[in-house]
Design brief:
The chain is of the alpha/beta class. It contains 15 helices and 17 strands. The chain has two domains: 109 residues, Roll (Urease, subunit C, domain 1); 290 residues, Alpha-Beta Barrel (TIM Barrel), CATH 3.20.20. Helix 2 runs parallel beside helix 3, helix 2 crosses helix 15 and helix 11 crosses helix 12. The longest helix has 17 residues. The model has no long low-confidence stretch (mean pLDDT 96).
Length: 438
């Protein structure tokens, strides 16, 4: 058989159930799917492909899965740093969105974020924002995969000036984007329990469930939110969501920092998923999520960056390093959050968190060919004793040389092939000039 694409001459991190590492491996791809993965022995010939991708001794691994983004918010990178979350959100971000978020700015903000992610090895993202149909078109244009949620909030929002239309707008978006591409999966994203009423939450969740969509929500992000929930609902944010029927296997809880043991038990029992965003949580001083306890309880936890306005980058390699070290020092135990755990969170765990683990997240025959090649001929990556450790603790997004999604090469030799990056950068600079003036 002649394959469409053959990736060879590299160490393969499969991230499969056995976490197999193949020292000299070959990935064979046909019709966008991994057909087989083989180890070369001695001078055995490389399988024939219409296109050949030489990993040059680097690491071949699954594309990373970012479980929480707000793609257009790349426009606000560095706009309002070093502020508490409530001040940052209410006095800076919400007003900036009201003035500057429109279909054109959303398009170029999303394209900028997609370019940053794909160049740094993230092939799939889970997004939540407004004008999400525009975001979906941008993700599709650049060739990435995405679970993309239309934002729902009980206030006037970009593209939804009347909050009474928030669910209707989310449903219209989902129906519009359901057949856009096999790589694009619509979702519904309620901002939080404190910006959405009980009725809104129930109606949004019902709309998601009736269409088999992932339901996303920020929850238990700050101490203030936790205290407010105790005052208004006489219980924790997680117990409140459970009481009104929001938690189930298709629910993605973002941040999930302020949890008590009962909350963790409920999340586990309902098989809800969690997106952990350590760098954003640290920058906004929101707290340290009890990820070790969640994992011990069998909860699926994926890794996310959050938006560029609160991180300020989308490099999931850096996020892996941060996640590993944060929880080691917080637990005063250097053995926790080991490389296998963290790499799983950024790949197969993230895929499971957004309902795509049967499709992506590991390099296995039958899965979509979302593959990243990391260039290891760089001073900070030499020598290599353990490829997984090198990925988690030493590599960064700039080490990514080649990126494949659904068998299509999107990045080759660090060059983005699907869009004009210079045009995107120029457009975003002009938008930022306008933001500065106003």
């Amino acid at each position: 058989m002649v394959f469409d694409l053959v990736i060879h001459n590299g160490v393969i991190l499969t991230v499969n159930r056995d976490f197999d590492i193949i020292e000299d491996g070959v990935v064979c791809i046909k019709n966008g799917e991994i057909v087989k993965i083989v180890a070369r022995s001695n001078d055995s010939p490389v399988p024939e492909g219409d296109e050949m991708l030489d990993a040059q001794g680097g690491i071949i691994m699954p594309g990373l899965v970012n479980t929480h983004t707000h793609l257009p918010m790349a426009l606000f990178r560095g706009l309002a740093d070093d502020l508490p979350l409530s001040v940052w959100l209410n006095e800076w971000i919400f007003p900036a969105e009201a003035k500057h978020i429109n279909p054109e700015s959303v398009r170029f903000g999303a394209l900028l974020s997609c370019a940053e992610m794909i160049l740094s090895g993230t092939t799939t993202c889970c997004d939540g924002y407004f004008y999400e149909d525009v975001v979906a078109a941008a993700v599709d244009e650049i060739g990435m995969r995405g679970v993309l949620g239309q934002g729902v909030i009980d206030f006037p929002a970009p593209g939804v000036p009347d909050p009474a239309d928030n669910i209707k707008s989310a449903v219209a978006y989902a129906e519009k984007c359901q057949g856009l591409s096999h790589r694009i999966h619509p979702s519904i994203f309620c901002h939080s329990p404190y910006t959405c009423s009980e009725e809104t939450l129930k109606r949004a969740k019902a709309a998601a469930d009736s269409r088999g969509l992932v339901f996303q929500i920020h929850v238990a992000e700050t101490r203030d939110e936790y205290v407010r929930s105790q005052t208004e609902h006489r219980t924790t944010p997680v117990k409140y969501l459970d009481r009104i029927g929001i938690l189930d296997p298709n629910t993605l809880l973002v941040h999930a920092i302020w949890l008590d043991p009962d909350d963790i038990e409920i999340i586990s029992k309902r098989n809800a998923k969690v997106s952990h965003n350590p760098e954003s949580n640290m920058k906004l001083a929101s707290g340290v999520a009890p990820v070790l306890d969640l994992l011990m309880a069998g909860v699926t936890v994926g890794l996310g960056t959050d938006g560029c306005a609160s991180n300020n980058d989308l490099d999931l390699f850096r996020e892996m390093d941060t996640a590993a070290k944060l929880h080691k020092v917080n637990a005063l135990d250097s053995t926790v959050m080991n490389t296998r755990t963290v790499l799983n969170m950024a790949t197969i765990g993230g895929a499971k968190a957004i309902g795509l683990d049967g499709v992506i997240g590991s390099l296995e025959a039958g899965k979509q060919a979302d593959v990243v090649v990391v260039d290891t001929c760089r001073p900070h990556l030499v020598p290599i004793y353990n490829p997984a450790s090198q990925i988690v603790y030493a590599a960064n997004g700039q080490d990514v040389r080649d990126v494949v999604v659904s068998g299509n090469i999107l990045v080759r030799d660090r060059e983005l092939l699907t869009v004009d990056l210079e045009d995107i950068l120029e457009k975003v600079r002009k938008i930022s000039d306008d933001i500065k003036k106003k």
